[in-house]
């Protein structure tokens, strides 16, 4: 495991967006170390935007993010140029950048790369050009790269979209292993069944945060319907936001009881881990 | 039949031309390979044209002076490369469109500037280079460019490859992406200025792109592609110069045409996706 004190990621009135239109609007909350959090919500709800904001890929329009330590990130659509003549080995080895930098030799780390590839079921693919991989195999190779990045926080943007059941199962196993190792994993997902069975906590987004907490409570029919309604409007004529709407809870479009509650992990919920460990979450600050 | 090496042994200007072209052949093709893989082939052409008004401005100020024209060309090439990027980021125009606009402006402006002071001969020199009249300073310049290019590529090889394959990933782990991209554009401009001295504005990209594109048909991995590109460029230089001497052809076009012939031959016969290979590949394999 990588060194360093695990730190929470705190979001303070975070607003992210494109062309001044917020895609994530006034989000408050804390992602605590070791959380296994699903981001749910319709298309355009701001899931990808939030993840991109967390790694600094898009600028913060308002509010701020308090995050420490290295963050590993798997983007949604592969941004990878698959026609580039690169081997699977080299692609995975990119994950070692923080350790090796631009010049240090890969030779001594090679065994580690092979092991990571074996973990994702790609033994024997080391010398294959990335252009010859199937979609699922490429996703496996990218997970190997995430393993090698060895970060305390891992962000996954729709990691199982267009991936077959077998691959999804294998990669979910890897996500569970990371959770067992105490890493923070945040994944944007569409499949509610998957979220319910594998992710103890969920943040439901519809540009506004709709609910944040234990998955079973967040994914209620009410919340889902509200999320759908909220996400359907993109107002070209939207006026500049003065923040007042969000300062006074009574005026907020989201009723107080489902305002993103300050991550009440302490209030009695427990979740099952396939590894059989059972850690009561410490009470949130 | 005369010995193909005779002209190089007998004539100093042919040896100089060969030395200059070989220096270019070692540095420009690897840069060209990256350009091709990043789908920036046409951009390099636009940048080559952008060098012209800069070099012409140097010419206006100082006559046919190597330092003045080189500095002018470098500045103009870098400015256009950066401007095109800035226009793409801040307006609705895509990069290819903004590059096309810049390159037309540069070419027309450059020709105008040269004609203000120079003769037709000077203009031809600018457009098609003067590989048979390379003097010592120019040769040093070409050698220096070659050395600088290879060293820079070696230093930034890893981040450059990552920037090509997965720029989002590189941004998420390092801030090297921006500087690496700029350094790469710098290498492109520097090599184009070198190519400009030997082959002129219009053909400067010839030794950069044609060998790189041809090499894609011979190698599967990046290192092999770059090695093949350098080899093809060197062969093109030797054969092109030899042919131009033997048949009394203009040297710059002869070199670029030879590289073009290598490209066509590679496209036909190359083992990696060449046409012949596709025609005769036989039935499919067992699943």
UniProtKB/TrEMBL annotation, chain A:
Gene3D superfamilies: P-loop containing nucleotide triphosphate hydrolases (3.40.50.300). CDD domains: ABC_Metallic_Cations. Residues 237-285 are annotated as: Disordered. It comes from the Bacteria. The keyword Membrane does not apply. It holds the Pfam family ABC_tran. SUPFAM superfamilies: P-loop containing nucleoside triphosphate hydrolases. GO terms for molecular function: ATP binding. Keywords: ATP-binding, Ion transport, Nucleotide-binding, Transport, Zinc, Zinc transport. The keyword Zinc applies. Residues 265-285 have a biased composition (Basic and acidic residues). Residues 9-232 form the ABC transporter domain. Belongs to the ABC transporter superfamily. This is Zinc/manganese transport system ATP-binding protein. It comes from Methylobacterium aerolatum.
UniProtKB/TrEMBL annotation, chain B:
Pfam families: ABC-3. It is found in: Cell membrane; Membrane. It is a multi-pass membrane protein. Gene3D superfamilies: ABC transporter involved in vitamin B12 uptake, BtuC. InterPro entries: ABC_BtuC-like, ABC_TroCD. Keywords: Membrane, Transmembrane, Transmembrane helix, Transport. The chain crosses the membrane at residues 17-37, 46-64, 100-118, 138-157, 202-219, 226-245, 251-269. It comes from the Bacteria. SUPFAM superfamilies: ABC transporter involved in vitamin B12 uptake, BtuC. Belongs to the ABC-3 integral membrane protein family. This is Zinc/manganese transport system permease protein. It comes from Methylobacterium aerolatum.
